[in-house]
Write a structure and sequence with these properties.
Helix 5 runs parallel beside helix 6. This protein has 18 helices and 29 strands. The strands form 6 sheets. It has a 7-stranded parallel sheet with strand order 9-10-8-11-12-7-13, sandwiched between helices. The protein has a 6-stranded mixed sheet with strand order 5-2-1-4-3-6. Strands 14-24-23-15-22-21 form a 6-stranded parallel sheet, with helices on both faces. By secondary structure, the chain is of the alpha/beta class. The relative contact order is 0.09. The protein binds adenosine-5'-diphosphate and zinc ion (2 copies). One zinc ion (ZN) binds next to loops.
């Protein structure tokens, strides 16, 4: 009888699957996890196929199956293979880390018992089901029109803030879940602390179904039980962040991507995948509908919709009939000079809003107390010794902290260079603004929400609950305050100091700024009385504000798309970034020059190669970083190029490490 050979992928940069003999008494199928020897170790692999012959002469044997968990589906295997090819990495490097730790670690003695426990994990208790509002005509048109019948159907909902996108998702889910007792739905959300609220909302709408979530903040055991519940079909709804695009389902019938423009869908480590793009791929593999939603769609998705690749739906009204669109005005800080960060007009508006019993949100996109501490005497500045950045002063801890590497030291009492006592915090972060607000409005209840205050599990939800319950008068915070919250009583939103982003060298900076300002403005006026938005700026004549004032995303997007078309930028071209790291910037750049020479040699005319340059933040954790930008006329051309380039580049000797970031979002 012919030998039976299993082709197995493992978590290693090796591109091709490895071959192992299957012992005669071992029953194993494609998609199943197995234990295989690799060098002197034992590792978890996934069987992706069988063959009778092998390129290798001496084969070792599969040790065992891991457990009785059913095989991963062929759709899942195709998705992970596509991801690996597209993002230029090993199949196993995508597939294995996509499993929760429990399913990719070597099984211990109690493995089977733990599995049983995971399967029995008690479901969250469900309060009574929540009422379901009558959809307005724009909303119901979407629910009617989205094709739910066994075909790839990509759609984009462009709906202003508060237009009831969530409600549309819930209705689409309901349709899919009620007509097919096996159907499962994946709802993807950005990486923020919002998932608990949303999960609760979804669960209370569907008390009859098991709803699970999957995000990086969860304990490993929870992740494992959520994963298994989806894999085995018990859970009908998964609410998850970017990694959930790789979740395993028994019968996935619909994907929803909320806030599809959000940069957190792009992974910034390991395999640098974009979960929104992969969700589209997954829907096309599974032949199911996918609905993206945003108040400010990414220009990539918006262009796809304009080009007819996605069905475009619009929600132009606020869904709650009591709600009003906020009135937006600019405060010209060249004239109305801010005192401790706040101009007179802003301060008056805050006082007025609090006095009328409504809440204020102050948005400042910078955490900490002050971005840098400076010596007034000699000019010394607090820099990180390991990175080419400033160390930020955090008053709550009394320390200087680097936001890139986490290095931290107590704030020195005197200047480390000249001994002077005159150390001054320069600039303003959320902690300093919080202090200022507390000083000026001592009666008001001020809360802060940023990555620092949200670090402890649950603390962000506590602050958000307090805002919802009316126990907060002023909420100061970074982007986290901008996202999706359905606050009912916000009368004023204040935006401090976003001017630097108007002139960033990153060509996406304006798109992001517009998006975050729309988001944060959208927190005002969501019920009953009108809401006001004040933006402090010295560039009152900038176009971006004109479009913001009239809530005109489409006008803004048209302008940006035109500018990008004129200069062949994404989405009118495709990019890949090669980032190299090493001890010295000179050798990093020299290596990138070698890659550039190789790229020039094999490139087609539709590829453009730029000069290697240091990264904007050149050094992080004592590692110097440089980049080589490659541009192509299309993603297809880029893939053709990378598929030739990558294997040859791997054979070049590098002193440090390097990686390819396909469709980069950050430079
Ligand atoms: P978005 O996600 O578009 O910002 P939400 O889905 O949060 O908007 O909806 C905003 C508010 O409007 C929520 O309080 C929601 O319950 C309410 N809402 C949504 N649809 C309707 C509707 N058809 N009738 C009444 N209220 C609605
Ligand atoms: Zn000094
Ligand atoms: Zn640092």
């Amino acid at each position: 009888m012919a030998k039976r050979i299993a082709n197995v992928i493992v978590d290693s940069p090796i591109r091709e699957p490895l071959d192992y003999l299957v012992p005669a008494d071992l029953e194993i199928q494609v998609g199943q996890r197995c234990l295989v020897p690799l060098g002197s170790r034992k590792v978890i692999g996934i069987v992706i196929g069988f063959s009778e012959e092998s390129r290798f002469s001496k084969l070792r044997e599969v040790i065992s199956r891991v457990d009785d968990v059913s095989p991963l589906s062929s759709g899942w295997l195709v998705l992970t293979l596509f991801s690996a090819r597209y993002y230029q990495s090993g199949w196993g490097q995508v597939a294995i880390p996509a499993l929760p730790k429990f399913f990719r670690k070597l099984p211990g003695k109690l493995h089977e018992r733990s599995l049983e426990r995971l399967r029995k994990e008690k479901k969250r208790s469900v309060k009574k089901s929540s009422e379901k509002p009558q959809l307005n005509s724009e909303q119901s048109a979407i629910v009617e029109e989205v094709q739910l019948d066994g075909a790839f159907y990509p759609a984009l909902i462009f709906g202003i803030t508060g237009s009831g996108k969530t409600e549309v998702y819930l209705h689409l889910m309901e349709k899919v879940l009620l007509r097919d007792p096996e159907a499962q739905v994946l709802l993807m959300v950005p990486e923020i602390n919002l998932t608990p609220q949303l999960v609760e909302k979804v669960q209370s709408r569907f008390p009859q179904f098991e709803v699970v979530s999957w995000n990086s903040g969860m304990a490993e055991g929870q992740k494992a039980s959520s994963w298994l519940a989806c894999h085995e079909g018990r859970a009908r709804i998964l609410v998850g962040t970017r990694l959930s695009v790789f979740a395993s389902f028994k019968s996935l019938k619909l994907i929803l991507v909320d806030e599809e423009h959000d940069p957190s869908f792009k992974s910034q480590e390991g395999v640098r995948y974009n979960a929104r793009d992969l969700a589209l791929k997954r829907a096309s593999i599974e032949q199911i509908p996918i609905v993206l939603g945003s108040a400010t769609p990414s220009l990539e998705s918006y262009k796809n919709a304009l080009d007819g690749k996605f069905k475009l739906f619009k929600l132009t009204q606020r869904a709650n009939s009591n709600a009003h669109l906020p009135q937006l005005s600019l405060v010209d800080i060249r004239k109305d000079k801010p005192i401790n960060g706040l101009s007179q007009e802003t301060a008056n508006a805050i006082t007025e809003t609090i006095n009328s019993g409504r809440q204020v949100i102050v948005f400042l996109n910078r955490r900490g107390f002050a971005p840098v501490v400076e010596c007034k005497n000699c000019g010394w500045q607090s820099t990180c010794p390991h990175c080419s950045t400033y160390a930020v002063f955090h008053k709550t801890t009394g320390r200087l902290t680097c936001h890139y590497c986490g290095w931290s030291t107590p704030l020195p009492k005197t200047c480390p260079k000249c001994g002077s006592y005159e150390l001054l915090p320069i600039g303003r972060g959320t902690q300093r603004a919080e202090e200022e607000l507390e000083t000026r409005w001592p009666e008001a209840r001020v809360s802060r929400l940023d990555q620092d205050s949200a670090r402890q599990r649950g603390s962000a939800s506590q602050v958000l609950d307090a805002v919802h319950n009316g126990d907060v008068d002023i909420l100061i915070g970074t982007q986290i305050v901008a996202k999706g919250h359905d606050f009912k009583n916000v009368g004023l939103v204040v935006v401090l100091n976003t001017d630097p982003q108007l002139f960033s060298s990153d060509y996406r900076a304006r798109e992001r700024l517009f998006s975050v300002l729309m988001q944060v403005s959208g927190r005002a006026g969501r019920d009953k009385t009108e809401g006001k938005v004040l933006i402090q700026t010295r560039y009152t004549e900038d176009d971006i504000f004109k479009h913001l004032k009239s809530q005109d995303y489409e006008g803004f997007a048209a302008g940006e798309l035109e500018a990008r078309r004129a200069s062949f930028m994404v989405p009118f071209s495709a990019q890949a970034l090669i980032v190299a790291e090493g001890k010295e910037i000179s050798s990093v750049l020299a290596f990138l020059q070698k890659l550039k020479a190789l790229a020039e040699k094999i490139k087609s005319p539709s590829i453009r190669i730029f000069e290697p340059v240091p990264l904007t933040v050149q050094k992080v954790m004592d590692i110097e970083r440089g980049q080589l930008l490659i541009e192509a006329d299309s993603k297809v051309e880029m893939q053709k190029f990378l598929n030739r380039f990558q294997p040859e580049a791997l054979s070049l000797k590098a002193k440090g490490s390097w990686y390819i970031d396909v469709d980069p979002l950050n430079y």
